[in-house]
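Researcher: Sequence recovery benchmark, item below. Answer with residues only.
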């Protein structure tokens, strides 16, 4: 549309908009329109070009529909490929050198695995994540770091599994700061070949806070660039995203499909390279073809019918998202620096400080859920009191932590709806 059509309209400054809002408020405080968040960021009622800080964040030219499969599925990949899957995520100790398809290999026993470089192959191997999740190293710190050094030397890559932070209840600022600190811990422990390009693979869980999750992934690229630049490391970053389990529930479980759809949208718009959907019934049913097909089709609809693959940087230029990206980057970098001043990430894990901060945030979120400030459709609002779930549950949905000797207190995954489910299930009619 020709620009001269708008010449008769004068530009309205941010100051003028704010003055107009204050007039319309008729004496009420403008600050009452600000919304405070757990990330320490105030959401304003409007955003304007006058205060916009333009960002130049690289975004992948494409994203791949990724599916988790079993070893049995791997023997017959023609079917999922014909159904639209473009990359596969498998847990195994087999290198699978006979396929050239994009592959994410979740290594079960890294101490026995023979790592090697191959195009389109990403290893999910992260000793610090294992330490956080189990409370112990695979062997001990020295051996694990030596193994990771060998992994780096053979593959020119580092993998960071950051999904635990979201699924245990950390807010977005914490997720970003802890992911960055985890990466920096490896930078301090490992020796790098400065002449080579480092392949960074970061695994992320996505929540339902739509715009914040888009900004989270963009801020992650900003923070990674800051750390790598500081360390003089040339890098290539792959972000592998999937919807988290933190906000999912067994009650009105079909709503999980809506949650995972918007979460996949955030993952795509935020700049993920691989997007793997979570099945809507994962928390209470065993793996089944029906829910796998639904999860795959959600991504295919976004890609082929909603055209989410036509633009590589669709969120660029949004004043709101750029504001959130800047704010999250600054808040997370500040927290990252405080962690480093206090002995570093691994030391803070052994001191229990990281666990304590996540626990505090989780308890805060639980209170928001209990007083309906945080709404989960079908769970604490618009719930179906006649919903019966006892007979549909196929696995333990409330796993208990086995008591064992650990070096530190593990960080555990937990769902917001768990307590409510524990109260409702015994009350169901048999």
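Model:
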């Amino acid at each position: 549309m020709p620009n001269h059509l708008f010449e008769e309209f004068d530009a309205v400054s941010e100051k003028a908009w704010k003055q107009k809002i204050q007039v319309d408020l008729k004496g009420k405080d403008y600050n009452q329109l600000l919304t405070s968040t757990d990330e320490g960021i105030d959401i304003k009622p409007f955003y304007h070009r006058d205060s916009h800080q333009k960002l130049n964040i690289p975004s992948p030219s494409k994203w791949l529909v990724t599916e988790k499969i079993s070893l049995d599925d791997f023997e017959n990949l023609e079917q999922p490929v014909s159904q639209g899957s473009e990359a596969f995520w498998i847990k195994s100790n087999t290198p699978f050198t006979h396929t050239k398809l994009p592959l994410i290999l979740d290594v079960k026993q890294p101490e026995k695995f023979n790592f090697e470089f191959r195009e389109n192959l990403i290893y999910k191997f992260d000793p610090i994540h294992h330490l956080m999740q189990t409370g112990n190293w695979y062997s001990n710190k020295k051996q694990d770091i030596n193994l990771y050094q060998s992994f780096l030397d053979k593959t020119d890559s580092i993998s960071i599994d950051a999904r635990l932070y979201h699924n245990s209840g950390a807010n977005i600022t914490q997720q970003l700061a802890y992911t960055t600190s985890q990466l920096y811990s490896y930078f301090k422990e490992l020796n790098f070949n400065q002449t080579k390009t480092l392949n960074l693979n970061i695994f992320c869980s996505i929540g339902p806070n739509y715009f914040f999750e888009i900004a989270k992934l963009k801020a992650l690229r900003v923070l990674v660039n800051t750390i790598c630049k500081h360390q003089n490391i040339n890098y290539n970053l792959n972000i592998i995203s999937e919807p988290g389990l933190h906000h999912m529930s067994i009650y009105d479980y079909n709503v999980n499909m809506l949650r995972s759809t918007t979460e996949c949208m955030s993952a795509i718009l935020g700049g993920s390279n691989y997007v793997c959907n979570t099945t809507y019934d994962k928390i209470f049913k065993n793996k089944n073809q029906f829910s796998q097909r639904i999860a795959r089709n959600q991504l295919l609809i976004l890609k082929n019918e909603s055209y989410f693959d036509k633009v590589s940087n669709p969120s660029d230029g949004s004043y709101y998202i750029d504001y959130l990206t800047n704010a999250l980057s600054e808040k997370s970098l500040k927290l990252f620096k405080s962690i480093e001043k206090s002995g570093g990430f691994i030391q803070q894990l052994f001191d229990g400080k990281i666990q304590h901060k996540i626990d505090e945030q989780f308890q805060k979120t639980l209170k928001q859920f209990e007083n309906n400030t945080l709404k989960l459709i079908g769970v604490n609002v618009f719930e179906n009191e006649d919903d019966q779930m006892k007979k549909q549950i196929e696995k333990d949905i409330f796993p208990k932590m086995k008591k064992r000797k650990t070096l530190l207190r593990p960080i555990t995954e937990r769902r917001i709806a768990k307590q409510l489910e524990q109260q409702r299930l015994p009350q169901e009619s048999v």
